[in-house]
Amino acid sequence: MRELIGLAYLAICAAIAVWAARRTRTADDFFVAGRGVGLVPFAIAAMASTLSGFAFIGGPGLVYAIGMTAVFIILPAGVTNTLGAWVLGKRMHRLGTARGLFTVPDAIGARYRSPAAQGLSAVAILAGVVGYVATNALALGVVIDALFATGLSNGIWIGTAVTLAYSASGGILAGIYTDVFQGLVMAVASTAVFVVALDAGGGLPAITRTIEAADPALLGPWGARGAMTALSFFFVFAVGSLGQPHIAHKYYMLHDLPRLKWYPVLMTVAMVLAQLLFVGVGVAVKALVLRGEMPPLVSPDDATPQFLLRFVPVVLSAVVFAGVAAAIMSTVNSFLSIGAAVLTHDLPRALGRTPVRQLLVGRCWTVVIAGLAAVLAQQAGLLVAFVGILGYGLFASTLVPALAIGLNWTGATREGALASIATGLTLTVGLEWLVWSKRLTVPQGITVTGITLVTSLLVFLGVSWLTGHRAADQLDADVRAVLEDQV
Amino acid sequence: MIALVVGLLGIVGAYVGVLVGLTSPLVPMAMALGTTAVLAGIAQLAIVRAGRATPRLARAVRWVFGGMALGFVGVLVLPAPVAGGPLLFGLPRSTVILLSVVGVLPLLTLPIAYARAFDTEVLPPAEPRRDA
């Protein structure tokens, strides 16, 4: 039954991809879905590409291990869903249509009239994209192996090939409409498993009593890791969300601005439903293990798979496996699209060349990035572990200052943007490398991304103030009009 | 902008406190208030039109981030929950207070405030509804 539902899921994705591929005729279609996406697909696609397999596997495992501390990773969603539209939505959309932009580095280049800033942010995005796609390809391989017993290596190649098929043919247009289907699968699966999890645990009060008898801190307000770690997570995932390029560039795709009005409401509802499993399975499995109704987990990441195998009806567990695959594939598609756009469009522009035949070149780069990521993913546990942790922090520390602050502050300067992007890039890669190679230990309560994000923000503000006399000259009239709502 | 800078310095202070091994409750307090100030500062930057904050959205920022700061501080000064203590909605009371003020309050308030202010403050009638 699981295999059948898995195949049905892949067949529906393929059908949507064929439909979308026939409508992909220009680079605009390929990279920004022809700027014609409506509210509902826009919101659900944003949710689907925001949540990777971590929401279904790693997240519940983290709740199992450290309790409420892990909830601070998803708690900022109450703020970030609206803050994204508030801070980026209108300005990105206006800039996109005024200048024909279709990448995040495009917006940075236009904001500061700087090919160097566009190129540097493109390099940061590319580094993060390869890491994200590689770790998600590995996760997809694990899911496909679990469903079809293909072996991990074959699972990685099959998963990459399926995602690549619609990403290379239909680009982000195919991605958006497969995301809608995949987002609905994720929301349904998450909600249903949340209900089953609470029921299996005997209800939330019973779960809480079991857990607090063993460790009262776990379900206390800050969880097992304490207030500083919880607050660090909150800071990184609240502020860092404003620099995630796969979400920011979706604002170019919206058909028209009035549709932005209800986007935060719809996105919030979708996110809440899709994240119920994150908390529900984590706490229920903890209680079940403590009561001896489940054997102790070998690894916290086993929380969801073990719960599905033992407590969830086979049809629902198959839908959840499809939901995990959906979460991974939708994220991979988004990253393939922005990675291909960087190579097709941003880097040539930064080097002073005019991008040519962007649709064809974009498709070729999509294949190259996916292939490279699949090869990296085959090195499970080695290099992929390092590149995987780079992504979020790189995006946050390089893009939040120059993009999120820069689009809302006319006093920001090109020098500030360049300095902050360079700081974020070097500091993130350097510190993550030192931590990963065990040459540096970060004390509990601090995250590397927290350090790099604060530093790059302060560098951006400091250098912009020092060079503030140049700010007015660096703003083109149409960009200033967008920033000052004078359009 | 002042809130943003003060907030960032608060976070730097908290991180330095952890690095030098301070165990004072002021360390997480600085982190909590710093984070709230940074978020409020960014939100405030985005709602300034012609040098003045748009009133409805500014009110939402004050309510949400003011509530968030109070929630963080309140829970930081409350004693840690103990086994067998009172529950609210199936969870320890201090956990529910934090989840409500930091998670549910913005979740319910911000999207609605944004939608209600959209036609007057985000995209007022003077601005084109569609770009050329």
Account of the 3D structure:
The complex is a heterodimer of chains A (487) and B (132). Chain A is built from 21 helices and no strands. Chain A is an all-alpha fold. Chain A has a single domain, classed as Sodium/glucose cotransporter (Up-down Bundle), CATH 1.20.1730.10. The longest helix of chain A has 49 residues, at 152-200. Chain A is globular, with a radius of gyration of 22 Å. By secondary structure, chain B is mostly helical. Chain B has one domain. Chain B has helices spanning 2-19, 26-46, 55-77, 93-122, and strands spanning 48-49, 52-53, 87-88, 91-92. In chain B, a hairpin with a 2-residue loop joins strand 1 (48-49) and strand 2 (52-53). In chain B, helix 1 (2-19) runs antiparallel to helix 2 (26-46). The mean pLDDT of chain B is 88. The chains are: A mainly alpha (487), B mainly alpha (132).
Number of E-state strands of chain A: 0
> What is the overall silhouette of chain B?
flat
Which sheet architecture does the biggest sheet of chain A show? none
The percentage of residues in β strands of chain B lies in 5-15%
CATH architecture title of chain A: Up-down Bundle
Category from helices, strands and their pairing of chain A? mainly alpha
